[in-house]
Automatic annotation (TrEMBL):
Residues 7-185 form the Ketoreductase domain. One of its GO terms (molecular function) is 3-oxoacyl-[acyl-carrier-protein] reductase (NADPH) activity. Keywords: ATP-binding, Nucleotide-binding, Oxidoreductase. This is 3-oxoacyl-[acyl-carrier protein] reductase. SUPFAM superfamilies: NAD(P)-binding Rossmann-fold domains. It comes from Labrys wisconsinensis.
Amino acid sequence: MSRLSGKVAVVTGASKGIGAAIARALGAEGASVVVNYASSREGADKVVSAITGAGGKAVAVRGDVAKAAEAQAVIDKAIEAYGHLDILVNNAGVYAFAPLEAITEEHFHRIFDINVLGTLLTTQAAAKHLGEGGSIINIGSAASRLTPPNSAVYTASKGAVDAITGVLARELGPRRIRVNGLNPGVVETEGTHSAGFVGSEFEQGIVAQTPLGRVGQPEDIARAAVFLATAEAGWVSGETIIVGGGLR
């Protein structure tokens, strides 16, 4: 039997990259998946097609998680479609690097609104429906440990996600809801390609520091997310796991 048969999962920012891989992996394990997207309906529909084409259940739901009403609407759609909720993956996020002198209010608020406020608003909406055995998985970044130059705002936002994970694990633990974080290293996605990371000297430097000698693939993160979503991780909460090939 599939490990997540009968479970319902919401994955935010799931139209591409890590979020898409997590949505597909949860669907492959039997979960009914709400594939959230902010702008790329085409990408979300492809993820839904991949899940349903393999015999699973999935729907695409638009929503900007940085807005309370839209975050609530995403969760409401999950309940409307499937009747309950068991798993929330807070994956929606943006990244942009800038040196100290180039940081602006707009730069700060765009990153913090999606990466931090979005995580809180979606979790707030989802927590009303999660019961015993529920699992919340926050996607952070190894940047919060590595603190690379020119990333003060982005790294700060992911450090905040780490803190949220710890706080909410304590806050929701009495309800037997688990909260954990996954902090990927550099992962080859559409985003890292468009940002120029893949094939760059930056990538070469990261690979040189990575004991397993490569950058990550979305599926590397997805497999870890599946573990945290299942009963196999039933005694794991409040943890932030770096999934980065040994990069520290």
